[in-house]
Amino acid sequence: MPTPIIRIDNIVKRYGPLTVLDGLSMEVMPGEKLALIGPSGSGKTTILRILMTLESISGGHIEVDGEQLYHMPRGKDLVAADERHLHKMRERIGMVFQHFNLFPHKCVLDNVTLAPMLTKGIKRTDAERRAMELLEMVGMADKARSVPAQLSGGQKQRVAIARALALSPKIMLFDEITSALDPELVEEVLNVMRRLASETDMTMLLVTHEMGFAHDFADRVLFFDRGRIVEEGKPNDIFRNPTQERTQSFLRKIIAAGHRI
User: Above 90 in pLDDT, residue 256?
Assistant: First the structure.
């Protein structure tokens, strides 16, 4: 069996008296496409933000690509990771956010090339060549000189995906990337995701309320509630024959709201 590319062991995350993740453990295999579903506030986005080191942990350990994420060796001991270690680990992970987070005063091409040039020292000509390849892949090459204000929400999100890919991460995290979009723009972003899933071997973790897409996209689905994994399995098992009452209740509400599963 291959070694997990992500290993989360007994993670706890607290905000003051509020416990968001409560002894969470999970593993993700290299190349696996994982969908995280569940009600708002169940801890799904917190996991992604922790993996991206945007949030710290209150307890437990995380390994990414065989190395501790929030700890580092010092002699025979493990100590809290310093910023240099976190920066090194962060380079292996890309994240696409719900609200795009593009630089508003820079054109599309600059948005995609800036991080590789600054963090990896890639020459502008090489960065721009790679950026144009990625923009072509997400259907945005013709907008390379446009600024974000000239783009639709779906176009902005496709640029955000290209920007995250420009750093060649091993792991990609997607946090509700269609929830801020008008319904008619959702499909163009999901089509890019389908292409990524079918044409790359990147490990991908997706937090979504698009249950139909999660069913089609994922190798495995994890249902979260109150900071714990209530149920996990292949998409057909979770969406067609869930065994836990809490999963069944959640999916009934999703169907009642008119969403496709």
Answer: no
**Distance from C-alpha of 200 to C-alpha of 217, rounded to nearest angstrom:** 13
Q: Does residue 46 sit within a domain? A: yes
Query: DSSP state, 241?
Result: S
Residue 17 sits in the same domain as residue 56: yes
Count other C-beta atoms under 10 Å from residue 173's C-beta: 24
User: How high is the pLDDT of residue 147?
Assistant: 97
* DSSP H or E run through 44: helix 44-51
- By the 8 A CB rule, do 80 and 29 touch? no
Domain membership of residue 127 (yes or no) is yes
Q: pTM for the whole thing?
A: 0.92
Question: Quick one: which H or E segment has residue 134?
Answer: helix 124-137
Residue in 224, 258, 255 with CA at minimum distance from that of residue 240: 255
Domain count, the chain: 2
